User: Fold these one by one.
Assistant:
Number 1:
Amino acid sequence: MALLDIHNLVVEFQTASGPFRAVDGVSLHVEEREVLAIVGESGSGKSVSMLAVMGLLPWTATVTADRMTFNGRDLLKMSPAERRKIVGKDMSMIFQEPMASLNPCFTIGFQIEEVLRFHMGMDKAQRRARAIELLKQVGIPEPEDRLNSFPHQMSGGQCQRVMIAIAIACNPKLLIADEPTTALDVTIQKQILDLLVSLQAKYGMGLIMITHNMGVVAETADRVIVQYKGRKMEEADVLSLFESPKSNYTRALLSALPENAVGDRLPTVSDMMFEPAPSGAGA
Amino acid sequence: MTKVVEGKNIVRDYHVGGGLFRPARTVHAVKGVSFSVDKGKTLAIVGESGCGKSTLARIITLIDPATAGELLIDGNKVDIARDGLTKDMRRKVQIVFQNPYGSLNPRQKIGDVLGEPLLINTDKPAEERRDLAMKMLKKVGLGPEHYNRYPHMFSGGQRQRIAIARALMLNPSLLVLDEPVSALDLSVQAQVLNLLADLQDEFQLTYVFISHDLSVVRYIADDVMVMYFGEAVEYGPREEVFSNPQHSYTKTLFAATPRADVASIKARLARKAA
Ligand SMILES: Nc1ncnc2c1ncn2[C@@H]1O[C@H](COP(=O)(O)OP(=O)(O)OP(=O)(O)O)[C@@H](O)[C@H]1O
Ligand SMILES: Nc1ncnc2c1ncn2[C@@H]1O[C@H](COP(=O)(O)OP(=O)(O)OP(=O)(O)O)[C@@H](O)[C@H]1O
Ligand SMILES: [Mg+2]
Ligand SMILES: [Mg+2]
């Protein structure tokens, strides 16, 4: 049984100019211990589809799907109260914009401990010890001191790591990481990716990694989904994707890597999307 | 060559107030950094998370004063703590913040976000402001249909482009970009980097470009500064830094860059199967 199983997910937003379909029939599944990477165009519905899974979209969004189950339970039929019990505990998410996702009015210690209190029922001493342990795991120096810092006193990458600490606090079964390392330098990025992979091995966690960093995909993913304009363009195991990408869009993405610059300008996807594919490939 | 911006021994300390049982302490975020950027050139700053890059960016863009040291813009000494900030200075130096969402007013439509700098700093009529905003939207890969939307209706990468568009509205001569492409997919990243290169050719724009993506830095920078715990541990022309890094942190940084080639993937999968 898949840990997360989604069939034909559609998300529409009401906007002033009529309904806007941000996710158009996406199907995906993740198993325990699996790392699924989702890459794709900006605005192609990656974050929105995962927020739909978490039940965190605003009221202007309409979510429909043929099936959406987590750990065998139907997310579509679940009451908001039931969902609150699993979101942040069994299923948690590292949000794309860390600085905007932390509450500016509370210390980061409070924000980490709040999750532990609500979901794990730990007492004060346990919570503090666990919070310090988590900050250490994500590589924040002087964690005891840092518990008393407010988000604006932290750097961008430090805020992002606090978000990661909150997301992994309860050892989730499924972790959705939405661009989890964008604010991190490569040395700390490596430390964080190693941490996520070790949690996955230790607790059998399933991991959905949304990223535009092909290096991160290459170094972590088992399977990859490529999304474009609200749709799934391609799905493949990580090796096949890099070795023999099938869709034009994937090929375009891979060639837009800065190391592939020709002359003094980079190739962009629009330069390549309309070129005929080499034989045997379809977009 | 004219130096557009120069820093001499810039220092920035933060005093973090203590609580009932906690003593106050001082964070030394930037510890005496010097640099200069010539007109039409790009200085890239890389470094460990928390090493003081954004702090330095805020000092260069005259948002925060330095605790000590000298900042010169176009050869003139600037001290905002003492003299405040002129309108002309504010136009000349622009920043794209690391956190695009937090820097956009949630109640302001995107068209107004882009038009506002013109409204405040110029006397262009509404019609012209609208035209210029539309043009800029197109330049960053968005369309007229986005003009009347609010910030929360955009994806992370779209918001990042709006922040870049806003900073460009006033034709600045110095643009500080704090992780401007880290939230962008490769295609949009390429578009934005190309746009920055076009603007640099056209208007001799000067950039200070903060990034942790070394392949982007290698593509865009003329000079590279590597920061580590508040200090510039390496500073020089791009090719020199990349081909012959001196400091151990720079070497670690290069070694930790994830590799996206088939051979590395095969090696990882083999390790995992073992
Ligand atoms: N509240 C909303 N109202 C209207 N449209 C929205 C809303 N939220 C998101 N959208 C639109 O839905 C689309 C998908 O957004 P989403 O955030 O999922 O993109 P993404 O694939 O995560 O992109 P990125 O890589 O830039 O983060 C975008 O076109 C966005 O403008
Ligand atoms: N307002 C503040 N009060 C106290 N300390 C601060 C404040 N702002 C930043 N700091 C600290 O100063 C140091 C440098 O922060 P800065 O934001 O400049 O780092 P950075 O190099 O931009 O990191 P990142 O790559 O993670 O964004 C960090 O240790 C941070 O916690
Ligand atoms: Mg997103
Ligand atoms: Mg920063």
Number 2:
Amino acid sequence: MNTEKTPLVSVRNLKKHFPITGGFLQNQVGAVKAVDGVSFDIYPGETLGLVGETGCGKTTVGRTMMRLYEPTAGEVELNGVSLTELGEKDLRKIRSKMQMIFQDPYASLNPRMTVGSIVAAPLDVHTKLSKKEKHDRIQELLDIVGLNPDFVNRYPHEFSGGQRQRIGIARALALEPELIVCDEPISSLDVSIQAQVVNLLEKLQKELGLTYLFIAHDLSMVRHISDRMAVMYLGKIMELAGRDEIYLKSMHPYTQALMSAVPIPDPDLAAKSKRIILDGDIPNPKNPPMGCNFNTRCPIAKERCFIEDPEYREIEKNHWVACHFAEETRS
Amino acid sequence: MTPLLEIKNLKTRFFTSEGVVKAVNNVSYSMESGEILGVVGESGCGKSVHALSIMQLVQDPPGKITNGEVWLDGKDLLTFSEKEMKKIRGSDVAMIFQDPMTSLNPVFTVGFQIVEALRLHNDMTKAEARERAGELLALVGIPGAEQRLDDYPHQFSGGMRQRAMIAMGLSCEPKLLIADEPTTALDVTIQAQIVDLVKKLQDDLGMAIMWITHDLGVIAEMADRINVMYAGAIIESGNVRNIYKKTRHPYTMGLLGSLPRLDEDPGAELLSVPGLPPDLLALPKGCAFAARCGYRTEKCLEEKPPLEEIDGREHAVACWHWEEIAGSK
Ligand SMILES: Nc1ncnc2c1ncn2[C@@H]1O[C@H](COP(=O)(O)OP(=O)(O)OP(=O)(O)O)[C@@H](O)[C@H]1O
Ligand SMILES: Nc1ncnc2c1ncn2[C@@H]1O[C@H](COP(=O)(O)OP(=O)(O)OP(=O)(O)O)[C@@H](O)[C@H]1O
Ligand code: SF4
Ligand SMILES: [Mg+2]
Ligand SMILES: [Mg+2]
């Protein structure tokens, strides 16, 4: 991946804190630091993978980046235009360039709308197509995602999970977006169906030149589909690098543990692999630890880690790490 | 030696208003004591129902075991009354259910629930049972186990709840522990903790374990043997090496090909299985996989392939064309 190009999306020091209210007057008594200062670029035509365990803030990054949530702080630019400063009207225009595919293909489609009207909805809002043009476009979209165009008048419950995900993809493609945020698009699907959807997403990317932010907690799948990967933990990016660097030369102890925990579907290799078993659970984001937020589980934490938050820095070209000892842990 | 568990021609059906759901179709296999068996397959293929049939916990109505035998440690379980089964459950065989939140009662403390399980099967005083419950929680790696006995399930994290479930399953030292998707809802680092724990416990206590999952990755490193299920039937079974390295059934091949692997060159297209699993209300006449299979012939559509032993107990496959497929690879 040539990262000398101008990024399509630039995210700088993005924060999203959800207020916690309490007491008689429902005053704010604290905040969930769901996203706490993340920075990354996404280049045109690439897939940036975003991985991390439940609750680490992946969905919140996606939604805040698209300004579906108001950011607490930070900057997001799409094609050099700052999204964080746009008014409602301009935002709506630019949003058609960014679409989202959701985790739950059951909840994200209105059960009372036909497939045709679901896919047509963004066209109704953003375009002035004639009836005939719209009809043709819907047929074309269903065909692109591998659904029988004769199904336009059917309802979501008549489809399987994988087919529903295809409907969601067709809807996301309707306005010819540049960027699609795929938020766990395959987690609810069976293994053999997951591969169908991933192959489709890859084919569409090639044919339509799409750019993806691909969010998931399945590391092997993210590595399969991504050009570069970012690893999140408790609201922050711990490491970001090319997919091979992340796998072969990870420098953050969390990435190393996460990689080693991924099951290998091969008994010989599994027997040879060395597991780094992390102790304990992920801390509550209401109350993140002082210093490095990984320090409660980190196998190499030293005194400094409990005092000072490590800087997120470019250790090697295009390889970013937030650990005081990144230079030493280089594997 | 008689096997610890032997299942013969098991059939379980659900008689619903829409028709008969053929959830378990002629399943036969055996497990030796101390063995770890992985049961894999996609959602709805009958993994849970087959395990519930062993425990005789299939919801009735609409469910019924319509055929077959289940032998556990020389006992013919399907002839047992509910009262007799109550004794068997927990003592000879224990099951960890798919959803820990439904199997831990939210209104009682974790300690109370383990104490109850212990006292149901052992002659113990409350104090003895409580002490043992503390030991069990410590055994499954819950920090400060003694103090956590008085916590309610919601005060535990997902991983801790799963550990508590395992502690409860182990409480009566069963000969067979059935774990239904024990790590599916957990993050990989927590999953690695649980897998590590179960391997250690198995080494120390030596019970047989049936580990039900849809993830061919998790069990590769811990199982001795694997049953691959499709549409309520076992379509391939054998020792781990044969299943992963000498895969013979087109469906197992498809499942393995659908998995991206961290150690492989990324970027290659995944080998997906086209189409969907069949409707258990209307199973096809021939091979249940035929509609999705690239090797299908006329015969596959007409006749159901039996589970044929190709290497004794070490490898069996239900496919008419496994020999040609093996030769062509
Ligand atoms: N609307 C909200 N109000 C309050 N807290 C929220 C809200 N949305 C998310 N959070 C909290 O922010 C944190 C990050 O949540 P987020 O959904 O972004 O995580 P995630 O990485 O997508 O997790 P998952 O893998 O489970 O989808 C969590 O602690 C979550 O409870
Ligand atoms: N109470 C019930 N009434 C009717 N059908 C049922 C009932 N319980 C299960 N079934 C059906 O039996 C079949 C097998 O279900 P089972 O729960 O064993 O699948 P599974 O392999 O465990 O799937 P999963 O991976 O989703 O847990 C499914 O088609 C299911 O719909
Ligand atoms: S029996 Fe036929 S259809 Fe079934 S798996 Fe074998 S080749 Fe495919
Ligand atoms: Mg999420
Ligand atoms: Mg199940």
